[in-house]
Amino acid sequence: MRARVVEWGVTVLVLALGLWGAGPVERPAACDDGETRAVWIATVGNIDWPSEPGLSVADQQREYRTMLDDAQRHGLNTVIVQVRPTADALWPSPYEPWSHWLTGEQGKDPGYDPLAFLVEEAHARGLRFHAWFNPFRVSKQADPAQLVADHPARQHPDWVLAYGGQLYYDPGVPAVRRFVTDVVLDAAERYPIDGVHFDDYFYPYPVGGEQIPDADAFAEYGDGYSDLGDWRRHNVDELVEGVSQRLSALDRDIVFGISPFGVWRNRSADPRGSATTAVQSYDTTYADSYRWVREGWVDYIAPQVYWEIGHPKADYAVLVPWWADVVAGTSVQLYIGQAAYKVGSGPGWDDDALSAHLDLDREHPQVRGEIFFSARSLSTNAAAAMRRVTDDHYSCPSTGSG
Prior knowledge:
By secondary structure, the chain is α/β, with parallel strands linked by helices.
C-alpha cells in the first residue's frame, strides 16, 4: 500500500493515441502522468454537496454528476469526498447515524446508498475516489440532546467534549480512537474506495478564553506524560498509526493521506520548522504531521498552504520548499492544498494566482500534485483561474498516483 506509484500511465496514453512503436511522444512540459490532480467535495454545512439538505435522490445525484463533469473539464483525476462530516455517515453505517446534511434529519434514510453511488460515478469517469473522514467532530452545535437518541455520543457521554459551541469526541479516550478507526475501516472494507483521507481537524482549533475540558481524561489515561501537549499529540499519533496499520493489513491497495494545516511549526519554536510566523498545528490541534511523514504512517501528505505568494506570515513560496524537504528521502507523496475559495478575495488572489502556485510547485520535484478547495469554487469564483490552470498545467491526461 505504501506510496504506490502508477507507472503504466504513459503506456495508457500512448496506446490511446495509437502511437505505440512510433518513437518518443511529444507532450507539453506540464504533463505528468504520475501527478494527482484532486478536488475536495465538502458535505459539512452543505458547502459543496448536496447544495442543501432534503433534496430528492435525483437532484442529489444530478448535482454530484455535474461536479464530476466539472472535475473532468478541469483535467482533474481524483475526487476527495467528505463521507463522515460530523460523526455521521453517508453510507448505511453500523456505527453512526445517517447524516442530516443529506436529508435535514439525522438518522433518516436518504433512500439510497450515497457512498456506493459516489464511488461508482467517479470510477465510471476514470476518477479516483478518496473517502474523507473528519475524525473527532461530533456536531456543529453543543447540545447532545439534539443528536439522535442512539447516537454513540449520547450512549457514551464520557467520550464527548463540549468546546467552542460544538461537540467533539475526546482523542484522549482509547475507546474513542478504536471507535473512529472501526468507522473508517467499515467503509474501507465495504466499498471500492481508492483512498482514506483525513482533514486538518484533530483537537479543536483554539477558541479565545476557553480551555479544552480534557483534564479528567488526562488524569485517567495520561500516565507517563508530564506535559499535556505531548500527551495530546500522542493521542493523535495513536489514531494515525492505528488507521495506517489496519489499512495496510487489508487485502487491497488503499492509500492513506492527511491534509494538515499548512504550518507545522515556526522556526522560532523549532529549528526544523518553517520560516513563518503563523499558527502552528503542532501546538494548536496537536497534529505532528512532520512525524507522520518521517514514520511513514501516511502514503501522502497534503498541507493546506492557503496563503498567497509573498504573504508576510506564511509565504506560499517559503512553505512549499519546506514541505518538499520534509518528504525528501521518504516514500510519502506530497500534494499541495490550494485555496481556490480565496480567488478574487484580495491582493495575491487574482485569476493568475493558482497557475502561479503550480509554476512554483513544478520547481520542486517532490511535489506530486495539488488538491483544490473546494468543488463549488471551481465553477464560481475560481472558474477563470481554473481555466488558466487547465491550459497551463493540465493540458494532457494524468492517471494519478494514488
